Amino acid sequence: xxxxxxxxxxxxxxxxxxxxxxSVDYSSGETFLFxxxxxxxxxxxxxxxxxxxxxxxPLKLRFGHDEGPPLSLEGEVVWVNPIRTDGDNVNPGMGxxxxxxxxEARERVVSMVRAIAYLGTDEDAx
Length: 126
Prior knowledge:
Oligomer: single chain
Shape: globular
Mean pLDDT: 83
Structural class: alpha+beta
CATH class: Mainly Beta
CATH topology: Thrombin, subunit H
CATH superfamily: predicted glycosyltransferase like domains
Strand content: 35-45%
Distance between the termini: 39 Å
Number of domains: 1
């Protein structure tokens, strides 16, 4: 690949994603919603939604995994996979990039991602 060619989505990712099913509360302005995270990385999440927010929408996120209080983070919609009426889209939703992570929040996200990765690997082995 030459320097001028673009990489596909998988090649652009700097952080490995791991499948999960975590509940998430998120809000934008006066709108509060509940959904599920279907994958997570150290820098973002994918939220399953039939009605994803537009690209650029800032969100307040709240989610957790097993131990400790839920994380409260800021994020931004960076890509959308819209629902299609022809049924050709089995995974509608939105990709969210975390924003303004404090050192503590970043460490908790990394720890959560590692736990999810470990549990996924452990389940795959059985």
